């Protein structure tokens, strides 16, 4: 869009402003959509850690961006020549922003209305699936993750990002395969997998239902049949599917065994 007439640039600025407020700080023809974001230059602050981890050339590969918001990650991966990029979200407000940015940048990206719970309705599987900044906003996060994993093509990658606390206990020590019924001590251990539930609100957002610790995040990923390959950024993991579910059982087998108790 370089060299456009000043009035065209002014019109673009007006349309971007009217489409706000923006959660993703995109750069479109020199215009930033959220320059005063409370998290800084977000999500560029996270992308710079992923930048060297993901392949530079995605020619022939497909991408699914779940909870795409205004499409920052969709845009970045399309710029790496991905054959197809599909971004999905449940908020038309964000999808409209994503389509506006896509058109202004002249990129071929498909955006559709779809929730994480409904991704199995999307045809096919994808080489790279992004599930970023959404897990803790879901009422039923593990149910969604189990479905998301099924959309990863053989040999594909899941890019998973979630809020977690506390960062002071930023370790995930090994856990035992089983614990006795009367065990108490592990529940007071900050390094044991735990996930807190917020009945009302967290950080002014009523959709922030869950806040896990790091140990819980990694245990959840493994239990969903994922191998953790990299941890390039504090809240981000790159994973590869290795089984239907962890611990040598399918999720259905493990649930059935529990019903026999």
Mean pLDDT over the residues: 91
Helical stretch tally: 7
Largest sheet: 7 strands, mixed
- Indicate the low-confidence ranges by residue numbers: none
What name is given to the CATH topology?
Rossmann fold
Shape: globular
Strand fraction: 15-25%
Helical percent range? 25-40%
The CATH homologous superfamily name equals Vaccinia Virus protein VP39
Overview of the molecule:
- With 261 residues, this protein is α/β, with parallel strands linked by helices.
- The protein has a single domain, classed as Vaccinia Virus protein VP39 (Rossmann fold, 3-Layer(aba) Sandwich), CATH 3.40.50.150.
- The chain has helices at 6-18, 44-50, 72-78, 92-105, 141-149, 214-223, 251-259; strands spanning 27-28, 31-32, 62-66, 84-89, 110-113, 126-132, 152-161, 195-197, 210-212, 226-233, 236-241.
- The strands form three sheets. Strands 5-4-3-6-7-11-10 form a seven-stranded mixed sheet, sandwiched between helices.
- Strand 6, helix 5 (141-149) and strand 7 form a beta-alpha-beta unit.
- It is globular, with a radius of gyration of 20 Å.
């Amino acid at each position: 869009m370089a060299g456009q007439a000043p009035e065209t640039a002014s019109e673009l600025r007006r349309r971007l402003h009217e489409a706000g407020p923006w959660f993703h700080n995109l750069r479109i023809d020199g215009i930033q959509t959220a320059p005063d974001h409370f998290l800084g230059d977000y999500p560029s602050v996270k992308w710079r850690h992923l930048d060297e981890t993901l392949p530079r050339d995605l020619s022939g590969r497909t991408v699914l961006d779940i909870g795409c918001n205004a499409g920052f990650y969709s845009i970045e991966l399309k710029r790496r020549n991905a054959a197809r990029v599909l971004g999905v979200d449940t908020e038309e407000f964000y999808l409209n922003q994503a389509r506006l940015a896509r058109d202004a940048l002249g990129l071929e990206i498909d955006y559709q209305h779809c929730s994480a719970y409904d991704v199995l309705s999307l045809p096919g599987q994808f080489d790279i699936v992004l599930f970023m900044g959404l897990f803790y906003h879901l009422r039923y996060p593990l149910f969604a993750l189990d479905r998301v994993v099924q959309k990863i093509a053989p040999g594909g990658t899941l890019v998973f990002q979630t809020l977690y606390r506390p960062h002071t206990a930023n370790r995930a020590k090994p856990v035992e395969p089983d614990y006795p019924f009367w065990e108490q001590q592990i529940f007071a251990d900050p390094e044991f997998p735990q996930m807190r539930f917020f009945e009302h609100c967290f950080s002014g957002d009523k959709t922030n239902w869950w806040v896990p610790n790091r140990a819980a995040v990694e245990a959840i990923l493994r239990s969903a049949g994922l191998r953790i390959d990299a941890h390039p950024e504090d809240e981000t993991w790159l994973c590869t599917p290795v089984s239907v579910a962890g611990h040598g059982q399918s999720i259905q087998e493990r649930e059935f065994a529990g019903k026999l108790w």
